[in-house]
Amino acid sequence: MKLATYKDASRDGQLVVVSRDLSTAHYATGIASRLQQVLDDWRFMAPQLQGLYELLSSGKARHAFPFDPARCMAPLPRAYQWASAPAYASHVERLGNLPAAALPAGLHAGPMLRQGGSDCFIGPCDDVVLASEAFGIDFEAQIAVITGDVPMGASPEQALDGIRLLTLASDVCLRSLGGMLGRPMTAFGPVAVTPDEAGEAWRQGRLGLSLQTTWNGRKVGLCDAGAGMTFHFGQLVSQLCKTRPVGAGSIVGAGPASHPDWSQGYSCIAEKRAVETADTGKPKTRFMKFGDTLRIEVKGKNGQPLFGAIEQEITPPA
């Protein structure tokens, strides 16, 4: 099934079920009003939402209405936890300008997770409001998962069982600042989907579909999100709960999709600049400026968007 959260002037929005083709939606009123409620009581509420989803997708839901991504908040507008890891060795290699054999020891031992701000995510069509172009504005297009409760010490296989939803994410990165200041916000796609919606493309904790990134109308990335992934999502979640349990409503990202074959483009500007520096001694590609637009999406094997698209503009404060 596919789930989204509509804006309603509250912090957590209103849960809606979205049809398979993303054309219609239906409020989940009577089952749950917020996505976090569903994650807290998944086994009871998910089957009810699934029934509504099947009814909606068949065109038989009485109170369906056209789905509008512009009305969406992030599927989970705020979360108990948001963590991501550079799950692609080629990304780490390029940014560190290292050969594969010389990758940081930590990457060989396991994924290097980092915590991000999770108190206020931005929606798929919200402007990215930033104070200055001088911060080195970048994006990190990636796939993320939303978990149920996962116990401390869970194996990668057990952690995979704890994944409830897949979604699309774009981490806003300010490369000139670094640290927490350099990661001020994260945007998420219009809908989150259960893994079965990806069909055979969801295999062994990886999503084998192309992550498409378009910057100012020019396609810059067409990266296979599964093929170059060194650590699968079960390993990422398992690493997160190595010393503590992970609560329902935690979000884990895989970092910008990357691939050893550079012909697939890039999912963050920093990686492109690193390649240019290695080739010519200096970067040629600029970071983002006010007025720049970004579109990120994943299309299924049928050519239809799986999550809808993140479509945003970089803007200064009003």
List its traits.
alpha+beta, globular, Fumarylacetoacetate hydrolase, domain 2, single chain, 7 helices, 6-stranded mixed β-sheet, 18 strands, 318 residues
Task: Outline the structure in words.
This protein is α+β, with helices and mostly antiparallel strands. It has 2 domains: 2-67, no CATH class; 81-315, Fumarylacetoacetase-like, C-terminal domain (Fumarylacetoacetate hydrolase, domain 2, Alpha-Beta Complex). It is 19% helix and 29% strand. It contains 7 helices and 18 strands. The strands form 4 sheets. The chain has a 6-stranded mixed β-sheet with strand order 6-5-16-8-9-10. Strands 4-3-2-1-11 form a 5-stranded antiparallel β-sheet. It has a 5-stranded mixed β-sheet with strand order 7-18-17-14-15, with no helix packed on it. A hairpin with a 5-residue loop joins β17 (293-299) and β18 (305-315). α3 (89-96) packs across α7. The radius of gyration is 19 Å and the shape is globular. The chain starts with a strand and ends with a strand. Residues 98-106 have low confidence and may be disordered.
